[in-house]
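Would you mind giving me a polypeptide sequence along with per-residue structure tokens?
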Amino acid sequence: MKAMIFAAGLGTRLKPLTDTMPKALVPIAGRPMLEYVILKLKASGFTEIVINIHHFGDQILDFLKANQNFGLIIHISDERDFLLDTGGGIKKARPFFENSDEPFLIHNVDILSDINLKELYDYHIQKDSVATLLASRRKTSRYLLFDEEKKLCGWINKDTEQVKPEGFYYDETLYREYAFSGIHVLSPTIFRLMDAPCWEGKFSIMDFYLATCRQADFTGYLTDNLQLIDIGKPETLAYAEELSLSFGILF
């Protein structure tokens, strides 16, 4: 099974830590967040991983070399010249995934969760979707909107009442509100949708999903009790550290 880890981000929320290291190598209880994600993927049966790099990318290369790639096949998608955001990052990694029908899992480096990644991956195959997004019931201002068939239909910002895609009409009786987790599974057929001229260079995968959800089958893997920590900000990084040191819990 194949996966991709988004590790190219600037980590601006974690300054000053990220003034001298990439976000992916910021430690929790002495181990970089990238290591936690790699080991979780490995334990879930993933054997081939693509990691994109940008900010202090050389440090990530050195870290992987020092750990012998954790016994996995690891490819590098090098964005050191230009950071491409999540959608552009996936498209740049296309050569690693497109010559196969095998789906691939995407995992943000700053997300820790108790999700069973193999079950998510198998669900995607069962549904034969173009993309399957892990989403949960948690408090936020921005929600993905799914219909009764768990198909992605739109997005709403509850603070501003902005909706996407353009022209979408939000009726709360028709849609279920879930928060995106930063973990999703894609089939290589998604690259055909990215061939449109508007999806060149830097773009967000969420903008892409919302702009094309009327054309393609994007499914939600929806859960009401997901345990998830976004460790990309100081307060939640500290919380994850506390969980690890006090209880030995780090998903």
